[in-house]
Amino acid sequence: MSLLPPATVPAAAVPDLRTAEVPRLRTPTVVQGLAFHRDPYRFLLGATARHGDVVGVDLPVSGPAVVVAAPEDVERLTSVSASVARAGQGRRHVLGMVSPASVLGSDPPEHALLRGRVAPAFDPARVARLSEEVDRVVRQHLRAWPRDRPTRLVERCRVLADHVFALVMLGITDEVRGPALARAVRAMLATPGNPPLPPPSPDDGALGAVAQVLYDRRTAPVERLLLAEVAERRWGLHRAPTDASALLDGQDVISCVLDEGPQGDRALLDQLVPLVVAGQEPPAMGLTWVLDRLAREEGRAASLAGDDPGAREGRDRFVAEALRVRPPVHSLLRDLREPVEVSGTRLEAGTTVMLPMVLTHADPRTFTDPGTFRPERWGSLPEQPDGYRPFGAGAHRCIGEPLARLLLDRAVAAAAEEVRLVPLLPRTERMVVRATVTAPVHGAPVMVRARPGT
Ligand code: HEM
What family, per the record (predicted)? Predict the structure, then answer.
């Protein structure tokens, strides 16, 4: 018998939400959805100010959910067993197209098996070995960004993050296929509107069915490119380019999945495509927010350049604070399999819980003067104060964190050394929501200038 779950989870397997004791917003779903996508911070702040730390919302993407906003409750819910608070099922409410046979979409017991299979690719020691390669790619991009004319960080950072992901995580060194895959994934995830509409879910009724057909059509090029890479590996045609041989360590995600032995194309794609989705937008938005912040903190640039311990520590604090004020993933999602009590309220089995980092990262109960950008605060705070969860927590904590941190570190160092980023809008932009990530409403326009002396 297969250890993997069926390709789709029957709707009946997800129990109805019962939130009798939980106060709920009464506005229509579509109104809540618009308000949330336009300004998640304000929407959630308003909801919790009116109803308290535990409040029911009804959003078009996730359906009915209970927002749990007290920092100590976030701590409690992220330490509950992954079989009781199920992340895979929670995420599939929002990312309906993610297969339950993937790390992103699975739950215990399959999750441990699927995560273990690809873990060597994400191992911190492996990622550290590829540091020079990541640094090379980051600087190559930064040097090619247009000088002295407006450009949007969001677009530049997406291309950069995609490039690093294709090389380091997928081991795709083919200079045509790597960028082609990045473009195909971008087209697959592109959604209209500002704030953008969420990607489709097959559970969205007739509209969802149409959206699913469109999504399948968009996924096809991604799948074709991944299968072309797989075919080359299977036939031993994988070629080593001269300047990136460190990448060919046989530990990239595709190698890990293939090492499991013969599998059909569908089974391979069910594992690979969600990893590609997870590895695209969060790091791209993380990079955007961090570099936008650097642009606004030009006075700190000199102390963040270089590789002495002081600069490295300074970058760690800078990144920690940038991810605090603008968490790239807006919330953690969990589906409860058993009742759990939070802030004196009993949440029933079947409840979808939303732990909103956009709110908890700005909570004055944890952070003094939360609206101020102050990296120095990380000298006296624990690494993971209650409610601070940019990479999640527990068994489902972001597997890509070591790569994400390396990418952010190299980008801050390279930008502080080589360019001057001039923000074109006076204030840090409002976050809008797209699926599970936050994006700057105007895409973070900047002017890139050469740094004197470079
Ligand atoms: C700044 C960059 C990133 C941020 C802020 C971020 C954030 C997150 C968060 C909040 C979660 C949910 C954790 C939870 O539910 O407890 C997550 C899960 C995940 N992330 Fe990331 N991520 C980033 C980069 C990446 C990268 C580069 C990859 C590479 C593929 C990746 C792959 C994943 C996967 C596969 C999961 C699911 C893990 C599991 O359920 O076991 N992420 N990420």
Answer: Belongs to the cytochrome P450 family.
Kindly state the average pLDDT of the residues 383-390: 94
Burial class (CB within 10 angstroms; exposed 0-12, middle 13-18, buried 19+) of 297: middle
pLDDT of residue 241: 54
Mean pLDDT of the residues in the chain: 88
Interval between CA 282 and ligand 1 midpoint (Å): 7
| Interaxial angle between packed helices 153-164 and 131-144, expressed in degrees from 0 to 180 and rounded to the nearest 10 | 150
Nearest CA to ligand 1 atom 30: 279
Q: Report the percentage of the chain scoring pLDDT > 90.
A: 71
Is any atom of ligand 1 closer than 6 Å to the C-beta of 97? no
Q: In DSSP terms, which residues pair with 67 in a beta bridge? A: 55, 354
Q: Specify the ligand 1 atom closest to the Cα of 285.
A: 1
The single-letter DSSP state of residue 165 is: I
Which atom from ligand 1 is nearest to the alpha carbon of 394? Answer: 16
Q: Which CATH number fits domain 99-332+362-450: 2.40.50.100, 1.10.630.10, 3.10.50.40, 3.40.30.10?
A: 1.10.630.10
- Residue whose CA lies nearest to ligand 1 atom number 43: 398
* Cβ pair 354, 57 in contact under 8 A: yes
- What interhelical angle do 401-418 and 153-164 show, nearest 10? 130
Pocket probe for ligand 1: among 93, 332, 354, 391, the residue whose CB has the most ligand atoms within 8 Å is 391
Confidence at 245, pLDDT banded by 50, 70, 90: low
pLDDT in tens, 298-335: 999 999 999 999 999 999 999 999 999 999 999 999 99
